[in-house]
């Protein structure tokens, strides 16, 4: 028994034990949620064109409404889904939902208005999944979504983990006409030497940089340098985490292409996003 050994059994760490139990429970519940398909839903956060303020697209963000615990943040369950492999099923489900939704929204756009894009997050696991291309093709066919409407977001670290393999997958997906974006740019240990080799269309400036901009000229310089780099390499830039009009103005002055953040709109249920699709400008 534990108490007999005194200090010798210091490996039994109650806090760690509780964490493990919690993870196992969440894994079990997430598996059930994926089977039943009632607790998970997708929120859509508008992305605007900085110059005009018009709606440019959405980012699909998964939500879990747990029957006993209520809303569990993706920051909690996505890592569990990643480590258990459940992310492959979860990710496929989000992709299908998002593609179905954008196809529906494109249908109700006024004739002559620009296409909307739908950004979907891809995890490291999905990036290394040999069935990924087949899944994407199948989902496009099933939902009627055009490849050019879809933008897949991947992090630098996910790409760098198996760079050669990831680059081949990105090339194939891009060959289908899908857009690729590097998410949370600036936070991973990215090698700048790799950046120009990546078959991508845009960089997403991590919100930590955007939120620090108002603090100092140095922080603004970092964002400016990311913009310059992106332009040099021919990528669009999306800034995330824009919370104030001051941030939006700074980014506009830097000729940032697209913006996303609470200043414009929060992630919202499809029914609310639906109302924005028909309108020319955000309220
Ligand atoms: P992310 O891809 O960087 O997504 C942006 C996150 O920033 C979202 O958090 C969004 O709600 C939040 N956000 C947007 N605007 C603002 C703002 O102005 N201020 C602040 N403070 N936050 C803002 P969320 O929805 O909690 O998602 C967290 C992370 O979970 C995502 O970060 C992404 O890495 C992951 N995630 C969410 N949905 C999915 C998914 O379907 N698949 C995968 N693989 N990962 C997902
Ligand atoms: Ca993202
Ligand atoms: Ca991000
Ligand atoms: Ca992030």
UniProtKB/TrEMBL annotation:
Species whose genome carries this gene: Azospirillum argentinense
Coiled coil: none
Protein name: Bifunctional diguanylate cyclase/phosphodiesterase
Domain EAL residue range list: 23-281
Tree of life domain: Bacteria
